[in-house]
Amino acid sequence: MRPSPRRRRTPRAGAFAVALALALAGCTSLPTSGPVEVGLTESPTDGTIRYEASGPVLGAGPTEIIEGFLQAGAAGLSGDNDFEVARSFLTEAASSGWTPLAQVVVSANESPQLPVVTLPEGAAPSSDDPAAGTPQEATPSDGPATLGSDELEGLDRVQVRLGIDAVADVDDRGVYTASTSRAESELSYELVRVSGQWRIDSVPSGLLLPEVAFGNVFRPVPVMFLTPDLSALVPDVRFVPTRNAVSHALDRLLAGPADWLESGVSTRVPLGTTLEQLGAGVVVTEDDAQAEVRLTGAAGLSAADRDLLFAQVKATLTSIPGILGVSLWLDGNPYEPSTGAVAPALVARVPDRLVALADGVLVRVDGDDVEAYVGVAPDGDAADPAGPDAPASPEATDAPDPADTGTAPEEPPQAPPPGLADLRRPAPAYDEDAGVAVLQGDGRLLHIAPDGTFTVLTSGRELLPPSQDRFGWILTGERDNAGVLTAVTPEGAVVQVDAEVLTGRVTEVRVSRDGARAVVMSERDGAAQVQIVAVVRDGDGVPLRLVPGPVLVGDLASGLGVVWTGATEVAVLASQEPGSAPSVRTALVTGPVAPVSTTAQAVSIAAGNGLGELYLATAEGRLLLRVSLRWEEIVAGVTDPAFAG
């Protein structure tokens, strides 16, 4: 059901858009209770919005038929009619070929525009056809003229074109892909008369839903897979219908990861695993909120693999509101954990350690307390492990003495040690003892240990800000990228990471907390965008290549930075229009984008754990923390804040 792109038109304040919006917003009810039928795949529906719809009205015109059909599509997801009402707007042939969940087109809330009713493409009115007259004039911005009620008399087939502002597409596996263009899209329907009544005879498979309706009848579920080393869970966010969310989520887990993520994760769901019985493989009991899952095809799994499979199933289903626990049956036998089993965990948090720069000195920031990062080496000197034969290495220097440093950012801890001047964009390791990677100027990447020892890791023309993963690899590369990243460790290991997706101008690459994904901010055709990629690794965690995934945020005027705020969300600092002030938006990976309150002076962004630990740095050196809906100054004289990752 992918709509055809077309030039953007001036939005019309038509009755159709208003009527559809009111219908989808107002014809709802909130169920407060209801039994879960044994043997039915079902999930709790308390608090979910239920849309209601009626079938075609006698004598309804093409526009009313389309309006009713779109409203009934939302009702088919939230009610008990399973799209029966929506199908009543279709001819028998169209109904048999229509697959409601083949794709969902999510439109902006003010869309769609007033439909345009015309003759079918290629059809010409005859001289005695009432529609042969010239319809009302249409301006170029309006597109084709629409047939009036008089022109419809005597016609048996018409085409309805619906202009929409598409926000995203969701495929049949629940993968959400944001629109990368501001161009208007178009959906086309053909209607015929059946016993004198208009019915839709040609319809794209799928649904068209405004953003609000989509958010009410679909919910995001992190379907859990495993890192290649089996140590952590990796969420693959899918959008599933809110009604029967448990069974839909389980279907997505059994089907495997999204195509873009597949090579970067593992799973212990055997190929061919299915529900024990269609319609009776998942039972949710309302009294204790437990989901009982019965699978077949997993008999050959080892005890360790059964533990991993259960971890995937449990973490996926308990992420759905109302599910508190899971019991698993495999080929008729209840699952029992093996002795000493340690379940892989979701890596959603980073250490609560914020580093930054204060007048060129690497510092730790703890509330309004700022202190020098570099301590005193045991022998009082900061050594250069790269050795005197490495011309790119700075000379060893005395490390700064924390006792001689102040904590007020207006009075920097002390001048940068010789060899550590012009520092930019620090990236601390997950392990506090593993030090910090930091750029020196545009073309040199350093590693600074807590004792002051520093090493040149790599050099280039204009390097990307470093990103450290949980395995200890530090990733960087050229901003004008030829499709490759350099991954290094403080111990001197170096690998080249195949990254064709980066070809072009890159602003930033940030590795996720589980290490299986990364978010990329880049420039394409004069616009900035943010895209998710899979990080393919070997069993030891060595990064090998990047695989492109969906665009999360597209069509930005300029990008300043992107950071992870958790396991499934990123925050983006960018200008949305040329010349406009930067703003902060969050994006679900993968899912909708939401605005965050911001300040016009922001130039860089950092995030700890959640939006409550979201920081901005301004051009004047003010460090701001997001507090509720406002930004509160923490310290002054600080730039380039960063958490691990």
Question: Would you write up a description of this structure?
Answer:
With 645 residues, the chain is mainly beta. Strands 1, 5, 6, 9 and 10 form a 5-stranded antiparallel β-sheet that branches. Strands 14, 15, 16, 17 and 18 form a 5-stranded mixed β-sheet that branches. A 5-stranded antiparallel β-sheet has the order 29-32-33-34-35, with no helix packed on it. The radius of gyration is 29 Å and the shape is globular. It starts with a strand and ends with a strand.
Beta fraction: 35-45%
Tally of individual helices: 8
Task: State the low-pLDDT regions, or none.
Answer: 6-46, 126-143, 376-413
* SS content category: mainly beta
Number of strands: 44
List the helices and strands and how they pair.
Layout lengths: L3 E2 L9 H12 L1 E2 L20 E2 L10 H17 L5 H4 L4 H6 L5 E5 L8 E3 L30 H4 L4 E8 L1 E6 L4 E3 L6 E10 L2 E6 L4 E4 H7 E9 L5 E10 L3 H11 L18 E2 L6 E4 L4 E7 L6 H15 L7 E6 L2 E2 L10 E2 L7 E5 L2 E6 L2 E4 L50 E6 L7 E5 L3 E5 L5 E6 L7 E2 L5 E3 L3 E2 L2 E5 L5 E5 L5 E8 L5 E8 L2 E11 L5 E14 L1 E7 L4 E7 L7 E6 L4 E4 L5 E6 L6 E5 L3 E6 L2 E7 L2 E4 L3
Parallel strand pairs: 4-11, 13-19, 16-17
Antiparallel strand pairs: 1-9, 2-3, 4-7, 5-6, 6-9, 7-8, 9-10, 12-13, 14-16, 15-16, 17-18, 20-21, 20-44, 21-22, 23-24, 24-25, 25-26, 27-28, 28-30, 29-32, 30-31, 32-33, 33-34, 34-35, 36-37, 37-38, 38-39, 40-41, 41-42, 42-43
Helix pairs in contact: 1-2, 7-8
